[in-house]
Amino acid sequence: MEEPVERQNPAAQENAPIWNILQPKFFLRAFMLYSIIVSATNFLKGGKSKYDKDAIIVRNLLKPLESFDLYVYLDQSSSPITNFDDKIPVWIERSIKFSDWNGGQKGDGVYNHQITLKTPEYLQKNQSIFLHSIIVKSGQTIDPKSTNYYRNKVTYKIKQLNKYMKKYYKRTANLLTGKSEKSDEYLKKADVIKYEVLNYWHPNVSINVVDHQVEYAKEKIPMPFDEVIEFDPLFTFYRPIVYINTFWNLRDEYQPINETVKSINLSLSYYPLSSLMFQLYMSQDMKPSYAVALSDEMEEDDNDYLKRAFLETNPILLAVTAIVSVLHLIFEFLAFKNDIQFWNNKKDLVGMSVRTVLFNIFQSLIVFLYITDNDTNFVVMFSVFFGFLLECWKIPKVLDIEVEKMQKWFFVIPKVRFSDKGSYVESETKTYDDMAFRYLGWILFPLLVGYAIYSVIYVEQKGWYSWVLGVLYGYLLTFGFIMMTPQLFINYKLKSVAHLPWRMLTYKFINTFIDDLFAFVIKMPMMYRLGCFRDDIIFLIYLYQRWAYRVDKSRVNEFGVIGEPELRENEGEEVSESKKEK
Q1: HSE-CB for 64 with a 13 A CA cutoff
Q2: 10 Å Cβ neighbour count for 479?
Q3: CA separation, residue 264 to residues 138, 162, 297 (Å)
Q4: Which of the residues in the chain have pLDDT under 70?
């Protein structure tokens, strides 16, 4: 059997911060949340809706606790079965009571049925198989040839069970020996195609009948019920809402189907579904229609992160995570806003590590080139590129830029000269900044060389370009947090933190703690979870420095400023008023 589907960009997803993985989908989830709220509101108002006097009110065909029979078939066709003579059902469950939450084998409302089937030949040949779910009132038949058949009272639902997913091929080899651990067949495919579409199977399927008794007029059906409710031709009732549920089937649980797979397992279950849960599921099913406009693929791995969190996380912790997810976005926006305001209003560079700013630009460029080389989707690329442009915007804030029109590269491109600003050169900041980076170079350069040697010897690469990007990206991801330490060193030497953008830093540091929470909610390796706490150490040192180097607003600081302007104005007004009283 072939190995499970290969993710499009495993390196980037395993190493990237978890919020960065989920963030590009925020607008999709925000739209989902909006849909859920609207749907829930419509549901709560559904029983109280007022219709025109002439409106025809229709009710559910099934009344509470009314019995019905469930028939399940498997077929190659996606069209309803009309001839049942040669069809054998895979499951028949009789006398199920509608909206009964205490039925089933264990009294929990759940009916289960498991079977093992010989793999159909057409499924082995990359064709599809469909589940046909049919519901009728007990005592009635589903056979159109029978006199006891009532077409309008048959609820028919069809769902494709197999799933087509892409398996990506990427030729990699050891750059020194030219050898690869991948099979010859894999390498041959990698030379010809980028990916192939394979047929995958998941054994779990749930059939749900929605516990929904709201009365409706034809023209006044709220979302998402307007897409699923089926009326009889005379508008005297609507059929029960049947939902075939595969939402909790995770991507890595699917197994490929080919000629070597002789049998497949199928685990069927039936249970009633509340209207609210149905709306939640429908909001997920509706997502592809608007998500396709933003990405070529739906990034199901990202959705699986969230599904796994729902399955494996304590509900209380999950609720807290949902709240802080919203806070994360707010704080991220505020940090972005205050970062721009700080640098836009910055008049001098005293106390600021210019080298760190330039290094952040280099780091953003490496990340962008790396994700581009790994075929990341457009949404993520745009997000990273926008962050890179923001960092580049700071260049004229920290450096003097001079365009020499008389001197040109290749007689066409004018030369551009960069130099440190006067406020930076004339202060002690440059001395301390150079000193900090010199000390860091003694530590980080050997680590970079060692990591590069390890990577070229033991890690297969697509080529030398990918190796350079991979080394720099992995190195920055592992040791990049150390580049925050030069600012700590400058603070220590100046014995001051007044020059820092504290609002922006505070918002960013709060988000690091939110990332820590995500690290424990989302499934990931333990070592990576521990790695999420690196930035917290830097933050704690910043807090200590803020406490140790408190700003005394009664004295002149290193910038020649006494306290806050607003404070001085208020104090001046109080003094003048006291003099008048005297």
Answers
A1: 7
A2: 16
A3: 31, 11, 28
A4: 1-54, 286-302, 313, 317-318, 321, 350-351, 375-380, 411, 422-427, 479-481, 483, 517-534, 551-582
Q: Six-digit token pair at 532?
A: 């999420």
Neighbours of 232 (CB within 10 A): 15
Contacts of 431 (CB under 8 A, 6+ apart): none
Contact by Cβ (8 Å): 90, 73: yes
The answer to whether the beta carbons of residues 462 and 187 sit under 8 Å apart is no
* Alpha-carbon gap, residue 500 to 10, rounded angstroms: 37
β-bridge pairing 242-245 and 163-168: unpaired
Pairing of strands 57-60, 237-238: parallel
d(CA 308, CA 22): 13
**Residues 224, 34: Cα–Cα separation, whole Å:** 12
* Maximal C-alpha separation, the chain: 109
Distance between CA atoms of residues 298 and 291, nearest Å: 7
The sheet carrying 237-238 orders its strands as: 216-217, 57-60, 237-238
For 410, counting Cβ atoms within 10 Å of its Cβ (0-12 exposed, 13-18 middle, 19+ buried), the class is exposed
Nearest to 498 by CA among 548, 566, 572: 548
Q: 0.85 exceeded by the pTM?
A: no
The domain segmentation of the chain, as residue ranges, is 10-297, 323-397+424-555, 556-582
Q: What is the dihedral of CA 346, 352, 354, 355, to 10 degrees?
A: -160
At residue 405, φ and ψ (nearest 5 deg) are -70, -25
> What CA–CA distance (Å, rounded) separates 320 from 316?
6
In tens, the pLDDT along 325-347 reads: 777 777 777 777 777 887 787 77
Pair 420, 430: CB distance under 8 Å? yes
β-pairing, 195-201 with 204-211? unpaired
Residue 540: partners with Cβ closer than 8 Å, 6 or more residues away: none
- Residue 491 to residues 341, 488, 531: CA-CA distances in angstroms? 21, 5, 25
What are 377's two structure tokens?
Answer: 């989707």
Cα dihedral across residues 211, 217, 218, 224: positive or negative:
negative
Question: How many C-beta atoms lie closer than 10 Å to residue 502's C-beta?
Answer: 15
Residue with tokens 């929990």: 108
Indicate the DSSP class of residue 284.
H
By the 10 Å C-beta count (0-12 exposed, 13-18 middle, 19+ buried), 40 is classed as middle
CB of 98 closer than 8 Å to CB of 231: no
Q: How many helices (DSSP H) and strands (DSSP E) are in the chain?
A: 19, 16
**Residues 157, 375: Cα–Cα separation, whole Å:** 38
* Euclidean distance between CA atoms 176 and 460, whole angstroms: 10
pLDDT digits (tens, 9 = 90+) for 383-430: 788 888 888 888 888 888 887 777 777 767 777 787 877 666 666 777
- Helix axis angle for 378-393 and 315-345, nearest 10°, is 40
